[in-house]
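Quick one, T. Sequence first:
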Amino acid sequence: MYVTSEGTTTRGLAGVRLGARTDGVRGKGRRYRSARAPRLMPETILQIAGNDRQEAVRLLRRFGYLI
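Structure tokens:
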């Protein structure tokens, strides 16, 4: 399973979708809050969705890859 922290702050689209504004955490010495949940990489999302296109699109939107 591949994850990233790119774009998960309160200012990033993925951070907003993952809830960084409402329940995010700010690490010691860090400026912005980040989402608690890890952001899955597209490869992992497609692997989880399998052949179900609707599930893949739903997950890609949830993790901020599609608008």
